[in-house]
Amino acid sequence: MEVMKFTTKFIVKVTRASSGVAQYVQRTDKSPIQMTSNLKLALIMGKLTAQDTLESLQRARCSSELVSVQVRA
């Protein structure tokens, strides 16, 4: 029996006060950062990249948080 190995990655969840709808970071290579409401399209990234993205979003008027996800290694 094969044992599946998982690793923890992160996505950045953003909730804007005006809409109240949760969105996720889709791309970080463009300015402004591209967002999506589809969790499957969210950018799965390492912790350092996610923290950098989170810091850049803190300047905006929104509530953002790191969400951990388990992915196959």
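That was protein one. Protein two is written in the same sequence-then-structure order:
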Amino acid sequence: MGTPTPESDIAPLELLRLLEEHPDWSQRELSRRLGVSLGKTHYLLKALLEKGWVKVQNFGRSDRKLGYAYVLTPSGLRHKVMLTRSFLARKEREYVELRAQISTLRRELAQRDESAH
């Protein structure tokens, strides 16, 4: 997880969002919600932990087992905001480009319809 690229920043961003909302979710649940393998989820979590964006805390569960909570650090919160801004800016650019393509295609179809009559 080096410098974020359009392809690489989506999974860490989504993981940070999920962890902020559901710090007590298991890796299995996170994996299911992300739509990636358990191994990939573990890899992403490990990378976030190594960067210091997330820390692990133990907590007691009712079934007498310890659970883990993944808590975003102040650095993790800052990077989540940065990734969100980057992702949003890219999606807004894509939206503008897509609207332009749609307009062009509609004009082309309208011109073909006119010439067919």
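Helices lie at 10-21, 27-34, 38-51, 74-116. Keep this in mind for the problem set.
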